[in-house]
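Posting for a labmate who doesn't have an account.
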Amino acid sequence: EAHWDGTRRVGWSRKDPGELLRWFVFDDRKMYQPGEEVHVKGWIRKIGAGKTGDVGPVGTSVSEIVYTLTDSRGIKVKVGTMPVNALGGFDWAFKLPKNANLGNTTLMLQALSPLSQNTHTHEFQIQEFRRPEFEVKAANESEGPFFVGAGADVTLSANYYAGGGLPN
């Protein structure tokens, strides 16, 4: 392992590999509206380092995860804990605030464990879904082939969804 004095490497020392955590986290949709429920699931595994290292369940080394949900403007929206089972699995749902800021939202997870790599970041989007106010259709009236510099007849129509055509 390299040692730094802030700007340059000042030496090396031996570091024995220790156990560390690996995460697999997913949500049900990756994009949500304000006020909707988000479902987050995942697993944590313990990775043993060295010649006899292996992948295995976390057992008693992790029993709880601390989470912080931060919106696109860096505002903490939710903070709390969720349990982890003996196999390292977790399944959790939470409701987004109705006034949540739109954009990238970050869920920072930290396993309460002395093992390294005990944090994980999961991101999803909060977006508004609005019905369009109008619809535009285009269709070509002339048959091909079409050549550069030559003309073509095209029909366009535009209507409001509430009825009536668009002006101009």
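Reply:
Got it, the structure tokens are right above this. DSSP finds no helices and 13 strands in the chain.
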